[in-house]
Specification:
Elements: E1 3-7, H1 14-17, E2 46-51, E3 57-62, E4 65-70, E5 75-81, E6 86-92, E7 98-104, E8 114-119, E9 124-131, E10 137-141, E11 144-148, E12 152-157, E13 163-168, E14 178-179, E15 187-191, E16 197-202, E17 207-212, E18 218-223, E19 229-234, E20 239-244, E21 250-255, E22 263-268, E23 274-279, E24 283-288, H2 301-310, E25 349-350, E26 353-356, E27 363-367, E28 372-377, E29 381-386, E30 392-394, E31 398-399
Length: about 400
């Protein structure tokens, strides 16, 4: 498999690297030809949904462009409605004006095998990557561009587009791949070459770890922002497992349910206190994690220093101090005292809260501020809900796909 890349005007300008934390601007313009008028045809279809790295906003790829929404307060930030087609991938870089776009949908003029790095402030394509097969996913961090194909992953330097790494994977039609986003860690997780295996690359430490996460194929995965914890679910969809990415140790096992399910998303809260799982069963499950997080309000100054030191360690026991010995807030079976005798089902940790959703609709969940869960659906609705222990929750939704253009 080969790839080619091009840059519109030399290397990416240094001023672009200084705008990674700047707000997204609502500059006018389109991707291929001037087309600022709003498309009022009423035929807009939602193709995809993507959170940004801190879950503060999300992107919606549509059949005629893309839209960006802020979560708190909820509003449409801006949109690009085009007559030249839509996008199946709209990958954001926090809240800056840089996006990675891949075409998709019926009659799109943007090919599915090409990645465009788009500067929405200047309304121009800064660079392109072309491949011989369809792009399954794109991941961005401040210093890297990661392009995922079905059997291969390419890692590029953001500044000069130099190809840094090529990683072979098992068939990966979902484009599974996740990155850390702390400046002092550089971690990538993706499928390995065997069923149920996850490959973890600690680029900063020049270390690779293979984790045998499940017996069946991995269906979903995510990393904490620092890349030290990995959460995975298999194609069976009944168990979610948490791993130490430094040595591959399994830290916790959570049970979503008993019946087979298609997992849509796994999300860890920024402080690794909670985990949310959405599936085709029409629920989002919320779990409590048994992980101490240094640097939050509950941590001492000495603990915070110890946590920072973990980033520079290469010890197989570097996360031992992070794991709490209590069982957390997740309920278990009343027969859990017989663990080791009865099947694993009876010793599993279950979710402490559930959100009921319409079945047959794909939803992705994330954690907002003030103990809220934000749920966005492919039916064009969004919900913001508080987390309450032990309750079965029902939410109120707001429609976002037809939000008035002037609200941004």
């Amino acid at each position: 498999m080969s790839s080619t890349s091009s840059i519109s005007s030399g290397i990416l300008p240094s001023k672009m690297l200084g705008t990674f934390e700047s707000p997204i601007t609502g500059a006018s313009g389109s991707l291929s030809q001037p087309e600022p008028e709003f498309n009022d045809s009423g035929e807009t279809q939602l193709l995809s949904l993507f959170w940004n790295q801190d879950y503060g906003c999300f992107a919606a790829g549509t059949s005629c462009g893309f839209r960006i929404y802020d979560c708190e307060p909820f509003k449409e930030n801006f949109r690009r409605d085009l007559k030249t087609g839509g996008f199946k991938i709209v990958e954001m870089l926090f809240r800056c004006n840089i996006l990675a776009l891949v075409g998709g949908g019926a009659n799109s003029e943007y090919p599915a095998n090409k990645v465009m790095i788009w500067d929405d402030y200047e309304s121009r394509c800064m660079s392109e990557f072309s491949f011989r097969s369809e792009v399954r996913a794109v991941r961005l961090r401040r210093d890297r561009i990661v392009v995922v194909l079905e059997h291969k992953i390419y890692v590029y330097n953001f500044k000069d587009l130099k190809l840094l790494h090529q990683i072979e994977t098992l068939s990966n039609p979902r484009g599974l791949c996740c990155l850390s986003h702390h400046s002092n860690t550089s971690v990538l997780a993706c499928p390995g070459l065997r069923r149920g295996q996850v490959r973890v690359e600690h680029f900063g430490l020049k270390m690779m770890k293979l984790i045998n996460a499940h017996d069946s194929h991995v269906a979903c995965m995510t990393l904490t922002l620092d890349g030290l914890l990995l959460a995975t679910a298999s194609a069976k969809g009944t168990l979610i497992r948490i791993f130490n990415t430094m040595d591959g140790t399994r830290l916790q096992e959570l049970r979503r349910g008993v019946d087979r399910a298609n997992i849509f998303s796994i999300t860890l809260s920024p402080n690794a206190q909670w985990l949310a799982v959405s599936s085709d069963k029409g629920t989002v499950h919320i779990f409590s994690l048994r992980v101490r997080v240094f640097g939050d309000d509950s941590s001492s100054n000495s603990s915070s220093g110890q946590g920072s030191a973990l980033f520079n360690q290469n010890s197989s026991n570097s996360l031992d101090a992070l794991i709490s010995r209590n069982t957390g807030a997740n309920p278990g079976s009343s027969l859990s005292f017989m663990r080791g005798v009865l099947p694993k089902y009876f010793s599993s940790e279950w979710s402490f809260a559930q959100f009921h959703l319409p079945e047959d609709t794909q939803f992705i969940a994330a954690f907002g501020s003030q103990n809220t869960v934000v749920i966005v659906g492919m039916d064009g609705r969004c919900s913001f809900d508080p987390v309450h222990g032990g309750e079965m929750l029902q939410q109120e939704y707001v429609s976002f796909l037809k939000t008035d253009r002037r609200s941004g």
